[in-house]
Amino acid sequence: MLAVNTHPWFKELLREHQPPCISVYAPLPRMASSANEASAHFRNTLDELRRMIGGKQGYGANRRQAALERIEGLMMNPDLWEGDRDALAFFVSPDHGHVIEIRRPVEPLTIVADSFHVKPLIRALQQSQRFQVLCVSPRRVRLFDGDPHSLTEVKLKNVPLSTDHPLAVEPNSTSTLMAGGGHKEDQSRATQKPINNIGTDRFFRMVDQAIWENYSRRAQVPMIVCADVQFLSEIIGMSKNDYVMKEGIALNPEAADPERLRQEAWRILEPQYQQQIATLKDAYHAAKARQLGSDEIPQVAEAAAVGRVGTLLVDSDAKVPGILHRASGLIEQAPLSNPRADDVLDDLAEMVLKMDGQVFVIPHDQMPTDQGVAAVYRY
Asked: How far, CA to CA in Å, does 9 sit from each of 130, 158, 262, 362?
């Protein structure tokens, strides 16, 4: 489980932005048959947002209008409807606009406040537990990207797809490799009987290097190798890819379907995920016993304001409405209808992240306390 601030764009999201700050979590309608039908879903969201922001005082008409125009431009972009994901998250202010694809179901949510509402995003990014599965055989190479809920095949580029593929027999070729096929000028040749098959060990090394350079180095997520049992240990053992797991999937990589691959990959990864949560809980209990941890929200808020919180666990199901004064850490009770109010737990998470702390949003039944937060202090 990675702390969410490992994402390079996240600190930009957390910077001070000109309010009103609009946060919209929008599940995508799976049954939409066209971009027009799908965009109607967002038009309803925009209507709700206009009513909501119209009732908020203190931001000024010009800034409200600027934020509305910016989010409308993002939501009505037809390119939004391409891709395989379950939801989109919009973070928009008069001076900022960002759209995040989320590959797991989320509850619909629209919030207007002085800062962006990121707790659902943290949870979605962490619980998605993204990983990749590399299926390798001398005759076929496939790559899948997904999480515990779904797995989708990636159209490979610049990766040798078999021992007789042009990139394998002519590794120095610079012509464009088409997704899922060969070079444009060599596609017909790739389907003919190979002339210069290379050895499997050399082929596996070439695939390993190409996957690292074109995919793993950028994605930085665990990779599980699927191969026939006769090749599996060899492929894992020779890999130079830092993200290849030591345990693989011993199945026919050419016949395994995405659902079976997802199940087998999560069987390998889930114990690690559970162990990470257990480690976080143990660290909290140990810190609290030494007076270096707390689950009292006012105490944690004051500690976060001065940068004392190194690790913060947040209950994914808890919500505490109010106004958190970030300079002091003092909390003022206020309903969410107040234009200055937000979820205090969400604001706490932002404060800790801005101070380069780690934040983990955890399901309620796995939290070490019932108070909504558990903090480990730096000192």
From this structure: 17, 27, 28, 22
* Separation of alpha carbons 320 and 328, rounded Å: 18
pLDDT, tens digit, 9 for 90 and up, residues 51-79: 888 767 778 889 999 999 999 988 888 77
Q: What is the mean pLDDT of the chain?
A: 84
pLDDT in tens, 240-269: 999 999 999 999 999 999 999 999 999 999
Peptide bond into 20 cis (omega under 30): yes
| The domain boundary residue, chosen from 48, 83, 114 | 114
Which string of DSSP letters, residue by residue, matches 167-194? HHHSTT--SPBPTTS-BGGGHHHHTSPP
- E strands, the chain, are 21-27, 87-93, 96-102, 109-113, 131-137, 140-146, 151-154, 223-227, 249-250, 293-294, 309-315, 321-325, 330-332, 342-343, 358-362, 373-377
**Which of 168, 154, 162 minimizes the C-alpha distance to 219?**
154
Phi, psi of 36 (to 5 degrees): -65, -45
| pLDDT of res. 175 | 38
Per DSSP, the three-state class of 158 is coil
Q: Are 61 and 189 contained in the same domain?
A: no
Q: For residue 216, is it within any domain?
A: yes
- Check whether residue 136 and residue 262 sit in a common domain: yes
**Do residue 137 and residue 210 come from a single domain?**
yes
Structural domain boundaries, residue 168: 129-274
Residues 110 and 180 reside in one and the same domain: no
Shared domain check, 249 and 172: yes
Q: Which residues of the chain have pLDDT under 50?
A: 31-33, 174-196
